[in-house]
C-alpha cells in the first residue's frame, strides 16, 4: 500500500510566507500545464514535471515537489502566465517553493558549483574576478565616471565564456560607432543575481545585489545598458526592492532609438533570410519586441521572417531559471525544437539577443547537425557585421 501523505498547513504557510502570495488563487484548471514547454517534449523530466500538480502540492503543504526533475525543472519562461484565468504568479510560487527547499539545505548537485562560485568569485562561471575584463583588451573602453551617461553592464557569461565574449565586443563596437557615452566597472561588479534568485537562493541573491547597488550608487550610476535580458530583469524588477533605482535598457532598445535618430546606420549588405527567436526575458518578461525587428529590417538585403511561435508565444530555449546548467538528454531539449522551427521557415540565420539563448541554440544546432543550413547569431554580432566592414 502506498504511504499515506499528510497535509501540512504549516508547510503551506511557510511557502506562502516565502513569497507565494497567490498560491491559494489557483483553481487547478490545468491551462498552465497545457502551455508549458515541457509538454512539447517527451522523456523523464517531461513525465515528472506538471506545474498544476506542483502548485496543488504546495497548496496542501504535501511532500513530493522537491525532486530535481520537478521543483528545479521550471525554466521560468512565463508561458504559463499568459493564459492563467486567476492571474496566479506561478513563477513567484515556484521561486518560493525553491526557497523553502534551498533554505533546508537541498540544492541539486549540478547547481552547487554555481552557488559556490557566486560566493567565492561573484560570478557563476568559476572565473577569477581579475579576468572579468580580459575580453576588453584593445577595445579602448573607458571606466565609468560621474561624467559618463551609461554604465555598460556585461553579463557574467559574456565576460568569461569564449563564445559569449563576442557579444560583449560587438555591443561595444556598435555603441562606440553610434557615439554613445558609456563606461564599464567590470572588475568591481558582481553577477546581477537574477538566476540564483530564480534558483531559490535568496540570501546569495541579496548579497550580490546589495554589493552591486553599493557600487553603482557610489559611482553615481543613473542609467544602465545590459547585454543580457536576465540582467535587465534583475536591475529593473529585483533591485528596486533593495533600493537600487536605475533607468535600465537592454542594448537592443538603445540601438533601436539610435537607429530612429539616424545615429546608427548599416552599410554592409546581408542578402539572407533571417528569423528572430524572442528570448523569454526580453519578450514576455520585459515586453521588448519591436526594436530588434526594426534593427534587422534596417540591414540592407535582410529578409525578416517570423517563426510560427513568436513574440509573447515564443518557445523558451530552455536556459532560464538555472536550467542553462542542467543536463537534459539530447532529444528532450527545447532548443532543438527552436532550431527545427527556424529550419522549417527556411531561414539562413536564426538571430536572438541573449547569451543563454545563444548557448542553448548553438548547442541544439550542433547536436542536430543543422550547421550547414542554419547559422545562429546574436543580434549584436549581425548588426556589427552589417555596420562595420569586416564586422567583428
Ligand atoms: S492556469 Fe492558473 S488557475 Fe489554472 S492550474 Fe494553472 S495556475 Fe492554477
Ligand atoms: S514558467 Fe515556463 S517552464 Fe515554468 S511552469 Fe511556466 S510554462 Fe512551464
UniProtKB/TrEMBL annotation:
Residues 24-88 form the 4Fe-4S ferredoxin-type domain. GO terms for cellular component: plasma membrane. Residues 152-236, 274-362 form the Cysteine-rich domain. GO terms for molecular function: 4 iron, 4 sulfur cluster binding; metal ion binding; oxidoreductase activity. Keywords: 4Fe-4S, Iron, Iron-sulfur, Metal-binding, Oxidoreductase. This is Cysteine-rich domain protein (Probably syntenic to qmoAB). It comes from Candidatus Desulfosporosinus infrequens. The lineage of its organism: Bacteria, Bacillati, Bacillota, Clostridia, Eubacteriales.
Amino acid at each position: 500500500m502506498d504511504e499515506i501523505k499528510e497535509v501540512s498547513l504549516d508547510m503551506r504557510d511557510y511557502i506562502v510566507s516565502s513569497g507565494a502570495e497567490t498560491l491559494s488563487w489557483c483553481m487547478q484548471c490545468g491551462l498552465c500545464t497545457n502551455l508549458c514547454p515541457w509538454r512539447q517534449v517527451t522523456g523523464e523530466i517531461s513525465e515528472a514535471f506538471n506545474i498544476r500538480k506542483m502548485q496543488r502540492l504546495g497548496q496542501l503543504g504535501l511532500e513530493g515537489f522537491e525532486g530535481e526533475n520537478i521543483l528545479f525543472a521550471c525554466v521560468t519562461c512565463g508561458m504559463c502566465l499568459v493564459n492563467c484565468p486567476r492571474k496566479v504568479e506561478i513563477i513567484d510560487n515556484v521561486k518560493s517553493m525553491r526557497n523553502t527547499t534551498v533554505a533546508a539545505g537541498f540544492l541539486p548537485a549540478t547547481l552547487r558549483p554555481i552557488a559556490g562560485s557566486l560566493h567565492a568569485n561573484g560570478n557563476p562561471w568559476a572565473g577569477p574576478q581579475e579576468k572579468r575584463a580580459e575580453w576588453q583588451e584593445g577595445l579602448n573602453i573607458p571606466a565609468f565616471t560621474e561624467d559618463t551617461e551609461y554604465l555598460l553592464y556585461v553579463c557574467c557569461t559574456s565576460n568569461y565564456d569564449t563564445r559569449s565574449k563576442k557579444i560583449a565586443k560587438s555591443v561595444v563596437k556598435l555603441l562606440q560607432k553610434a557615439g554613445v557615452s558609456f563606461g564599464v566597472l567590470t572588475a568591481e561588479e558582481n553577477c546581477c543575481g537574477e538566476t540564483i534568485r530564480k534558483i531559490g537562493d535568496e540570501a546569495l541573491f541579496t548579497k550580490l545585489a546589495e554589493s552591486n547597488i553599493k557600487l553603482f550608487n557610489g559611482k553615481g550610476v543613473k542609467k544602465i545598458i545590459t547585454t543580457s535580458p536576465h540582467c535587465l530583469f534583475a536591475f529593473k524588477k529585483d533591485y528596486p526592492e533593495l533600493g537600487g533605482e536605475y533607468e535600465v535598457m537592454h542594448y537592443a532598445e538603445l540601438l533601436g532609438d539610435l537607429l530612429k535618430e539616424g545615429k546608427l546606420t548599416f552599410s554592409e549588405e546581408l542578402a539572407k533570410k533571417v528569423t528572430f527567436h524572442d528570448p523569454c526575458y526580453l519578450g514576455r518578461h520585459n515586453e521588448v519586441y519591436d526594436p530588434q525587428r526594426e534593427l534587422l529590417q534596417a540591414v540592407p538585403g535582410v529578409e525578416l521572417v517570423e517563426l510560427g511561435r513568436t513574440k509573447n508565444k515564443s518557445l523558451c530555449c530552455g536556459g532560464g531559471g538555472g536550467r542553462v546548467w542542467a543536463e537534459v538528454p539530447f532529444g528532450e531539449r527545447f532548443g532543438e525544437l527552436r532550431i527545427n522551427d527556424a529550419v522549417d521557415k527556411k531561414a539562413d540565420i536564426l538571430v536572438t539577443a541573449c547569451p543563454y539563448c545563444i548557448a542553448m541554440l548553438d548547442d541544439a544546432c550542433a547536436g542536430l547537425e543543422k550547421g550547414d543550413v542554419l547559422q545562429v547569431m546574436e543580434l549584436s554580432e549581425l548588426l556589427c557585421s552589417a555596420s562595420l566592414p569586416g564586422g567583428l
